[in-house]
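task queued by scheduler; priority normal; single chain, no ligands, no partner chains; default sampling; output format set to structure tokens
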Amino acid sequence: MIYQERELTGLLLIKNAWDGNYKIAFFNELGMTYVEGTLENSSKRKKLVVKNIALNLDHKIFIKNLERSLQMVFTDKTNPSFPASQLPAKDENILMVKLRSGFILELKTK
């Protein structure tokens, strides 16, 4: 993930809660949590509800960009209303989402 010209790497765990919501946990390889929360699917638009976040990432802009990136991953890609694009990746197991703000979320499946 690239935010304000800094790159954050780690593991993003996404778990289907079977009520239409997704549990999200983004943490580094040592286990320090960057972001933990729920992507709620109960309304027309998926909303990220943050339960725990690292102090240096606790900014509205970061949370909004992460929310938009996750919406892009879990929404129909043909919807032109999203200010984002999927970039072609060299490896088929990588999904890269880049917002117009410059925020980049790169997901690699294991």
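post-processing summary
- The first helix runs from residue 60 to 74.
- Residues 79-84 have pLDDT under 50 and may be disordered.
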